[in-house]
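Action item from last week, closing it out:
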Amino acid sequence: MTKIVAITGGIGSGKTTLSDYLKKTGFLVHESDEVVSDMYTKPSKSFISFIKENISKEAIQKNKANKKKITNIIFSNLKAKIILEKYIHNEVQKSREKFIQKNLKKKIIFADIPLLLENKLETKFDLVVCIISSKNNRTQRVLKKKKFTKKILNKIFSAQTSDKERRRRSQIIINNNKTKKDFIFSAEKALIGLLK
């Protein structure tokens, strides 16, 4: 029977690093962030219409969705944030279910889901692997990529589950507070346990 494992953790914790490592090692990984990224970079007509009607007409320029503008809007408008998250959550879920169904002959499938615990999805998986990293380390990683301002990042932190809650609701914890090499070594140890 296929084992379906969820990967989660706060923003900047190292989920993408782990997913990339798993893919290089030959495992199948469905990445929620990749689906969301495609929604913004190659928006469907329905997504463009949705943004115009529910978020802001100004967030669409030349039939492209301006993610930075949308992020600024939703973090100052709770109603818009809830509506957008519900829409994206449904699209990602459809993509993930299709991916899982397509690969059910595999021994193990991974799903990288940033808001797994926030959306109470952990019961849908055989195991939850959670990456824990200090707020300081996560802040440095995210700001280095220049995807968000510190103000927006702090709003994201406050909207996400606490590490205490993550530890309580996950079966495997991987710490990521040292080097990338240390992190991958910890991940390999966790994998050995998963594959038994």
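Closing note: The longest helix spans residues 78-102.
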